[in-house]
Amino acid sequence: MNLPLNDQLLLGWSLKVKTCVLCVFLIALLLLSVDDFYLRTSNGAQTPIKHLIFIVQENHSFDNYFGTYPGANGIYNISDPVPENLSDTALGYVAPYHLNATIPVLITGDELPPGIADPDDLAAAMADPTSPFHLTSQSIGQDLSHVWKVAHEAWDNGKMDGFVTAEASNLTMGYYDRQDIPYYWDYADHYVLDDNFFSSAMTSSFTNHLYIASGASGPVNLTYQWVLHGNIIDGPPSISYYLALDLTWTTLAQELSNANVTWTWYDGEVNATAPTPWNVLPLFNYFQTHPDQLTEHVKNTQYFLTDVQNNELPAVSWIIPGAWQPPTPPFPALFANQSISEHPPARSDAGMDYVAYLVNQVMESPAWNSTAIIITWDDYGGFYDHVPPPQVDEVGEGFRVPALVISPWAKPGYIDHTQYEFSSMLKLAEDVFSLPSLGARDVKANDMMNSFSFSQKPLAPLIEPADFVEASASPTPTPAPTAAPTRSPFPSPSPTSTATPKATPTISPSPITALGIPQAYIYAAIAVAVIAAVVAAVLILKRRGAGKLSLPDFS
Q1: Residue 45 has what pLDDT?
Q2: What is the rounded CA–CA span in Å between residue 369 and residue 486?
Q3: How far is CA 200 from CA 105, 213, 419, in A?
Q4: What confidence tens digit (pLDDT) does each residue in 35-64 have?
Q5: SS3 letters for 350-375?
Q6: 414 phi and psi angles, rounded to 5 deg
Q7: CB 362 within 8 A of CB 314
Q8: Which residues of the chain carry a pLDDT beneath 70?
Q9: Residue 229 and residue 155: Cα distance in Å, rounded?
């Protein structure tokens, strides 16, 4: 069939436009099905996460904080209480009991609490009669420890019955609940609580912070008592030993630098680049030979606020407690000069206010929709936990510690029973940002992806008042118990009767949440609309000019 010249040209343009429209439609389907605006992880998953924040607090076991949380694997699953003395069970047994949050527990390990540089400073703070942490002989009981030897005595080859014997104190059996740490329980209510999250090493802070940074605690060629078969298992006895360390294996921070992925290690101490049992990066050879990396990436925690406010939050962040505290207000002036690490004798609720303040900064920023925050505690702190840690190698796992996953993409009100440890946080970062494995514990660790759902409607922020300590301060603390609690009965779970915070947290809906549409879908729809409009405009123009079209002259 012979068509007039202009009709041939118009038909040609029509076919081209139809082809363009078909391509646009296929592209739109692709965008909507795989969320091309999301990051693709190394294991093939799509994720909107562009920022991972690891907030690491101090010295509490899972049962100590969440042992009575409804639905979690807590103290109601204990088959037998713990004997007062393993060698003489006739002395009786000790069941878990509720601690008074206003009474400090003095835990001793191989380190002072973060923010305390000298033992005299701690002693002065404890002796200050105006201090909320003032201790008397009637309230202190006996000290607890969480070093390698004591932890293994408490573990008792997996029987989990040596805690009171190892500590020579029933304080190890104490726990807190919603009325003491309400914001942490609120986060568990709204986001994810991991109840099978283990510390990496059955010992105190230093070794576990090495795992938090690198997934390993060796190899080292040292013969000290705090080294076992090439692995560091306890903290060195003095700062001079720390300064002499030259650790040669790779950290996640180094891998991030090699991959040009942004990162920051926020440390609460005034000199953020000075090595401590918690600030371990300066102990690694890579950072000793690349001091510019420390200067660029290791900052005081105050810069976390600045980075969030300036929309410059790095891809991966660690936040380690120290002397830095949030401004007052909103942070309670009552604790202006006290530790916020939760490392006893610091009050747990003071640390909770500090953590809530940090979380609020992210929730109130544009970064919230692409962020995942993981709050955890670096070791068990001498407190009882009833779950035997799996022994994956000579160093660990250690006892369970709490872990909260807070994100718009966290499964709502979900208790994740998947086995995790500190190396799981590293594995998560490796998967999200397509990094090579460190070749350490991260190889076999689960990556925490089960705590997320990237197809769900994004969750709203949960803004906490961050002033619980001041709002609930009591001028006259209740004395600590002087006798061991009786063997039975165990306390009965009563979630409906637990106390709530004095101030009601505010849930602030984000624009995306209010629409109920994931961000990538909105971007895809906008892209399709723009391309379709351009194609339509071209078609209209060509139709209008068809009568003037002519074939080129090939003669």
Answers
A1: 58
A2: 48
A3: 24, 11, 12
A4: 434 555 555 557 899 999 999 999 999 999
A5: HHHHHHHHHHHHHHCCHHHHHEEEEE
A6: -110, 135
A7: no
A8: 1-45, 101-103, 106-144, 330-337, 470-555
A9: 21
